[in-house]
Design brief:
Two copies of one chain form a homodimer. Chain A is of the alpha/beta class. Chain A has helices spanning 15-28, 52-62, 72-75, 79-92, 107-119, 121-133, 138-153, 165-179, 209-219, 231-244, 250-263, 266-269, 279-289, 293-300, 307-318, 341-350, 367-380, 388-396; strands at residues 3-8, 32-38, 66-70, 97-102, 185-190, 334-339, 358-359, 401-402. In chain A, helix 2 (52-62) packs antiparallel against helix 10 (231-244), helix 5 (107-119) crosses helix 8 (165-179) and helix 6 crosses helix 7 (138-153).
Chain lengths: 404, 404
């Protein structure tokens, strides 16, 4: 069986994701598509709108064959670490291809860019330090450094535009594949219609997940987004809302985050992952004044610390995740969230060649390995008030979702 | 001016408190009645129904002349420490008398009992250890030890019934007065009608605060309790409810306490005051299953740890108060919550002879001294959702309430 891996958040699964899925199959001729999907919190430091189980349902119903969880240690991370975790899982799973969407759409520009940067690494790093000394954030400095390097040394070469978010992610996917010596072959598809960060719904049927979430947060009804998502997503979102009475937004967690800042001493926060350089004092001080999470972010963001960076720190504070818990270089297990018959057959066939333990039943799993992900679900459940209990029941259901 | 001190919680101020106040004036012939009142959390490990400011209003409008805060370090404590803090403040304030309600009603039984126990201290302590080895709680063991001692050695003497809650408190007041060599003279008034722990409203107009709170929690309306409280209390409770939309019950804090248990490692709880003997493991485990605070208490209480003891531990966990913060032997400041003209005049007259700093304006106070009480108000504010902000505005208002 030919297999293609994709790296996703599906927050929520929309028409653009469907296009990506279809194109992946077409381009790779894959029999099986494996999605490595973020768990309850996401790369940009946000809670997932709906639980990983509901998102697994969306994925399977839209045609994904096998859904694997990207553990917390990797899913709420900067692009580099996020990519390393996801790519490592797909490599372990013996995926023949990885196929990702990008603004570029041309895989050669990725390898060219990686080679170019690697050939000029010391200049590149010097530029990054220079820009950071001017006070900008690391991702911004890296993008500016690359731009400067490319203009000076290779103005006419076919290199990536590394100011584009999906190009950045793709760059890290391809780089991680090289670094771990993976046999998995990278491919890319040009993204159509929507920009990753677009705030407004597009008039076409493909809109960014950001704009879909924003519309949902403002209207608290599915009406406005219906034409931008497959029916299966619509059904799943409706079912979830009926069951939980809300979607999970940062604002749902705000009272708890604020409480956390109210009861904590600065020295109790300094060991939290991504809390650095005395950031804890600033956060504690402003949390007292802020009346919403949005308000809080407006108060604390700086040129040096982007919203995304601060949101991730806030997720780790909310979940009380210490630096020492995030030291794993690579994932240590494969947690199966769901599959169809093909996906199950694939796992069965490859089982012998997969070195990581495959967890499909929590009760048989090495408890210590999955402990953090269980705790994360517990914290995630606080978005849902009294209905939170159901999140933990889901989590302990222990068996992958099967869609035939 | 003759002054009488009383030690109160006023949760809420009811007809029994009014009787105590009137009898205090009559018995001591006092010109000024000074109430030392618990802050936002109370002796038995519960949040106060309404803020300390609202309760100060109730006290002043019912005729108390001066209201002083019993700081957190003393108000959420076992009887002995609670008494020491309160008695120390009244002694510092140069109160001529302390007048407390008790089941006994006879001050000589208190001094007799103190002398009796002090004369047989080693036997008394041996009995306490014996009973504790059988697994009962410390207060229970102390009460049984005393009973046994009295039966064996002084069956016919006029000693206290130390199984009664107000006798126990009174015993500690009188003992603390002796220990600090106070010139303040203790007096006691027999409590009428209601038992301290009564759950049901009495048919008479004096009911226990416990029964009043229980009725309020069940009905969320003031109708049923109106005849058991003075009009001034009724007005104050109504105003508070209109402003905050709820009273503060433990259940309001349950999501935050549960969240605290969900995100904390056991070793992060073991330094909390009153968390002992590995209690943290038990609490974390059961908090996951419990669906309400009541449910939680039912799960965790044992013969050794009474509800009161566990509730106090939960308050300290909620407020993240470490053992090291609770080491003060005596209060270090006098925080004035409110007064009438007489109360103000009294303070003015005695000022020179009061050695503790008097805080009536937070901005002029030694910030470090009042820091804990400010933090406690911040945590208390989480009972009120978005209205919590108003609790902090009250707290920072900084000036005592003046009722003319």
């Amino acid at each position: 069986m030919i297999s293609a891996g994709i790296i996703v958040e599906y927050n929520p699964f929309h028409n653009g994701h469907l296009y990506h899925l279809q194109q992946t199959r077409k381009k790779t001729n894959a029999d099986v598509v494996i999605a490595v999907m973020s768990g309850q919190f996401l790369q940009r430091g946000e809670p997932a709108l709906v639980s990983k189980w509901a998102r697994t349902n969306m994925a399977l119903k839209a045609g994904v064959d096998l859904v694997i969880e990207l553990p917390y240690t990797f899913c709420t991370q900067k692009a580099e670490k996020f990519a390393e975790g996801a790519v490592y899982l797909l490599t372990s799973l013996q995926a023949d291809f990885i196929c990702f969407g990008s603004e570029s759409g041309n895989i050669d520009t990725f390898t060219n860019t990686i080679n170019f940067i690697s050939n000029h690494e010391s200049d590149y790093n010097r530029f990054i330090r220079q820009f950071m000394n001017e006070g900008v954030s690391y991702p911004k400095a890296a993008s500016l450094a690359f731009q400067q390097l490319a203009q000076q040394l290779a103005p006419s070469r076919d290199l990536l535009d590394l100011s584009k978010p999906n190009n950045i992610l793709g760059y890290h996917y391809v780089k991680a594949l090289q670094e771990i010596g993976s046999k998995t072959v990278p491919m890319t598809i040009e993204r159509i219609h929507a920009g990753y960060h677009d705030q407004q719904l597009s008039s076409a049927k493909i809109s960014s997940a950001t704009s879909i979430r924003k519309t949902l947060a403002e209207n608290r009804t599915l009406d406005h987004i219906q034409s931008h998502i497959p029916d299966t997503t619509y059904q799943e979102l409706s079912t979830f809302y009926q069951k939980f009475n809300t979607f999970a937004f940062w604002e749902n967690f705000w009272p708890f985050l604020k409480y956390r800042f109210s009861h904590s001493e600065p020295n109790e926060l300094k060991d939290i992952y991504e809390v650095e350089e005395g950031m804890e004092y600033r956060l504690i001080r402003f949390a007292q004044e802020a009346t919403s999470f949005k308000d809080f972010m407006e108060m604390i963001k700086t040129k040096r610390y982007t919203c995304t960076r601060l949101q991730r720190a806030c997720v780790h504070i909310l979940t009380n995740t210490k630096k020492e818990k995030m030291r794993n270089k690579f994932p240590e297990y494969i947690r199966v969230l769901g599959f169809n018959q093909l996906g199950r057959q694939y796992l069965k066939e490859k089982k012998e060649r997969i070195s990581l333990p495959i967890i499909s039943n929590l009760s048989q799993a090495d408890r210590k390995a999955v402990q953090l992900d269980i705790k994360i679900s517990q914290i995630y459940s606080f978005a849902f008030g009294n209905n939170g209990q159901k999140i933990m029941e889901e989590e302990k259901k222990q068996f992958p979702i099967i869609v035939e």
